[in-house]
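Local shape tokens:
==================
===
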Amino acid sequence: MRFTRRHPLLVAVPLCALAVLAARPADGDGPHAPGHGSASGVSAEVARLYEEAATATERYEAGRREAERQRNRAHELEERLDRERRDMAGLHEDLGRIASSQYRDGGGLPLTAHMLLADDPEQLMRGQRVVRQAEVSLDKAIGRSERAEARLARNEARAAAAWKKLEKRNAELADLKDGIEAKLESARWKLQGQADASVAAGACRGAVRLDQPDTRFTSGWVAPVETYELSASYGSGGTRWASRHTGQDFAVPIGTPVRAVGTGKVVKVSCGGAFGIEVVVQHAGGYYTQYAHLAAVAVDQGERVSPGQWIGQSGTSGNSTGPHLHFEVRVTPEMGSAVSPVPWLARHGVSL
């Protein structure tokens, strides 16, 4: 599982406009027809909410980590307070033993009487000074302990107040995250409904110009999606394919931004057939990459693309049993010429 880049939280855009967007595709004869579709709408809304949900999740997780740190600090303070209380109890016991010892040794008589009755008055005075010093030391120790207990109690109260405030903030962040995710889920299926209508008509709606992420890649090649789980692999069998699976599937939710894996030229954008909505990009060296089962496209045929550029949004159009991106590497633009994509990406420095 890979983890996504996070962006600053964007202002949520109401979804009420989604209801007025038409579900039928633009007129066309099958190939991609540039100029159709709207730059705003469900695709752009899904992209915005996708970023907002990622940021809200990141903030929520950061809050939970801070809460755990606060909990640990409170636990440490409580342990320190318990140690101080045990030390004070020991000091009080020592004071009690000294008082009992003085009483047994005639502590009830005045010091002058003790000196008159003592065989060695100097030794008695030395003993009395030792006892007095012990009492003074004990009083100081008790004072320090009491001050430490008061200080720790204040710290404990502050920690409890901070914990309560943090819990409230985390609850608000959880509500925010859940609200964005609910909007995103609704928008995703509206987007998929539009994609299904386009595939049924065999006509693409046109490129939706999404706000591209402000990201600079140090490598010339990237994975086709940022956050994913690998599902069906190249060459695997199953009833869903006529022979063997010809690509690598990335399990991602509807509306996940799909990226060009490298620099190239869009040579095909089509809607219909087993692959649903698909984009094919030509790269240097005689290779082509295909991105299929999309819910929307963000590029036109003939357009140049760069590594990491959003070229579409994932979906479950065509012959698909659930949301995912079908990614192929080919030696021609057409199906039937696929090579294993995972080692091909690895040779270009992309490890899945």
About this structure: The chain is about 45% helix and 15% strand. Helices lie at 42-104, 111-117, 121-201, 341-347.
